[in-house]
Every structure is written in structure tokens, then in C-alpha cells.
User: What shape does this take?
Amino acid sequence: MVSLKEKYTDLYYVDQAELYEQLPVSGIDAIWEEICHYRRMFQVTYQFNAYRFTYSLTPAIYQSMIDTERSLRCYQLAFKAMNMNSALFDDKQYIYLLSELIDSRFCDTISLNQLATTHPLLFCVLIHGLKLKEENNLVELCLNRWGLNAIQEEIKEILNHLPNRNELDQTIILITFLKRLKGVINEVMLQAKLQRSNALLNECYESLIYTYPMLAPHSIDFFVKHREWGYYYSVNDYIKAENCSYETARSALNELVSLGWYKKIKVGKKFVYCL
Assistant: This one.
């Protein structure tokens, strides 16, 4: 069962006024103190001269950040974004702008550059929160560095419409950013998957053989002959078509599933495969 401190931190990150409004019960002060104590256990603070930001990275919130970063990595791999955009990234300007911040009073054991590498999304929210002068386009340079040119405008739009809070605790801003960004990445990945599926359906046997040398010829042969929308294929279909053993057929189909060419669905006691 989820405790109140976890509910109003991990599920609904509320401030004191919001808690008092949502939970008008006796002993509310003690509940709020318990929530604050829970958040302090996982607080990380970053300070730049007059600016000071605190994030409560509880296990649930931290996991959400890791999940979104994982989606980001999938996006980068799917579009080979890091290689495509490396020529567009101005490394000297990035280092110069970053050094301006590092020279200011940065009270944390993690350097900014390390944070930018290990947790780029937290870094992006942190830099945006500094409200730097317009000519300091560090966020834009970072997006280029991470190969996010294609969705740069969407990310900047999210950043520009984050909740405006002046409190020390900026966790809700990070949470909002993670949720909205994950939605954007999922939408882009879905569109890419549909385009890739359509391209696969039109590729011939010879083309796929050269493009996917790791696959056995019989796997490609089966896929080319069995890629009708709305049809379901079984291991027995593979055995009959390619004249192979049960284990070979099952392994080949599962490999095609891992590539995203087929979906694996359980019907009754057996599995079937479809586009």
C-alpha cells in the first residue's frame, strides 16, 4: 500500500497549499512534515550565485527520469541522430558557455559537464531554470549535442510552458518536463516505426539479404512471403514453408520479433506471429 508521503510525492507532487486543499483532515501539519522529511532524504541541490535549485529524486522520480532517458537513447539509435548531427554541434561554444557556469559558485560534487553526460534531461531543466540571457543558447547547443535537432522545437516548447514556480524546490518542473518529453518521443518513435514497417513491406528478398546479413536466408525468405496485414502465422507455417525443424522455426520467428518485423501474440495455448 502506498503511504501518504509517497502518494503526494511520487504520484502527485504537491506543495503545502495543494496538500491542505486536497487533504482537509486533522493532523495535516504532521503529514506535511512527514512528506518533507521523505523528500529531504533524496534531495539534490545545485547553486549558481543567486540561483539555487533543489530536486527530490526519490527512487520513483529517479526511475521516471531513467525511463525517459532510455526512450531518448532509443530515439538516438533509431535515427542514428548522434552521427547525423555531430557536424552541427559547436563544441568550442558549448565548452565556453559551460565554463561560464562552472566558474560561478557551483555547490555540488557532480560537475556540470558530468551531469550533462549522465543525466541530460535534468541538466536541460536546470540550465533552462537559470533564465540565461538570450544570446546564451546553451540549451540549444545541448540538444544538438544529444542529437535532438529533429525534436528541438518541441522540447523548447515544453520548456517554455513549464510551471512557473519561484520556490527552492523545482521537482515538479522536472516531473512535468519528463512526462511531456516522453510523450513527444513516443509519438516520433511511433511514426518512425510505421514508416519503417511500410518500407519493410516493399523491400525485396535481395535487398533484405544485404541489409540484414545477420539473418539466415530462410528467415528473410519466410518474411518476404508472409507479410500480409491481418494474417497470423505459426511455427508450423514456418516449418512447412522452409522445411526446417521446430526449434529452427521458433528461433527464427523470435528473432524477427526482436527486430520488430513481427508481433508475437498468445492465442489459447500457442503463439502466433503477425505484422
Summary: The first helix runs from residue 4 to 11. The first strand starts at residue 43 and ends at 48. Strands lie at 43-48, 51-56, 263-267, 270-274. Residues 81-91, 101-110 have pLDDT under 50 and may be disordered.
